[in-house]
Write a structure and sequence with these properties.
This protein has 226 residues and is of the alpha+beta class. It has five helices and twelve strands. The chain is 19% helix and 31% strand.
Length: 226
């Protein structure tokens, strides 16, 4: 009786030992993956690496470090699919043949740069309008004080009078866009792109002379808007 029991136990033990995954741990292999740039050869960090065993085992995932490396344990004797992704690069999938030993491999990613269609912008800058009105030519050839759009912006003035007050006298003539005006109360400083200040008719060009010729201290101010 005792001999029959012993034989049964031996047969049961052999059966369990031969069953896959019973009585022994599944063999694994270590993979060391290095991801590099195809153009520069530089390591690529934060690349997403996925190792998928063909036998149905759970996939392993991770990201490369600052040196472009990622290490993972994978089932031995199974075909492996390794997919590498990184923003700005074309994703790559490679197939690793079954094996039992540790392995090191380099994965090269190509840039996924996209060529964009050209963009054409049409605009009329303030500088062009001032040029058409002769502002820059007079600034080069005439005496006076000139404010272009950059100088006006630097003043950060809340209103136009904050800029003009030191230059205005009781007989000062005002021109807005080339037209004689009585004042600048209704002119929004945000619309002004250029200012010409002439302290007397000896400075002012012919088209902007002050008609009060008997008073040489009476000049004019010319304002240009966009």
């Amino acid at each position: 009786m005792g001999a029959r029991v012993s034989a049964g136990l031996i047969i049961a033990w052999l059966t369990l030992a031969l069953l896959p995954g019973v009585g022994r741990a599944q063999a694994t292999r270590k993979l060391d993956v290095r991801v590099i740039d195809s153009l520069s050869g530089a390591p690529i960090d934060h690349a997403e690496v996925t190792v998928l065993p063909a036998g149905g085992s759970a996939p392993a995932r991770g990201a490369t470090d600052s040196t472009g490396h990622f290490s993972v344990g994978a089932p031995a004797n199974e075909q492996l699919l390794i997919t590498v992704r990184r923003l700005g690069f074309t994703a790559t999938t490679i197939r690793i043949a079954p094996g039992v030993g540790d392995d090191s491999l380099a994965v090269v990613l190509a840039s996924a740069a996209v060529s964009l269609a050209p963009t054409i912008t049409h605009a009329t800058p303030a500088d062009r309008r001032l040029g058409l009105n002769g502002f820059y030519e007079r600034r080069r050839t005439e005496t006076g004080t000139f404010f272009d759009s950059a100088k006006i912006a630097n003043r950060a003035a809340l209103d136009l009078m904050s800029i003009l007050k030191p230059y205005i006298k009781g007989c000062t003539m005002i021109f807005v866009d080339g037209i004689r005006m009585l004042g600048v109360r209704d002119v929004d400083v945000r619309t002004v792109i250029g200012i010409e200040i002439y302290h007397s008719n000896t400075e002012a060009p012919e088209q902007f002379r002050n008609p009060i010729e008997s008073m040489k201290r009476c000049g004019c101010i010319v304002i240009w808007r966009h």
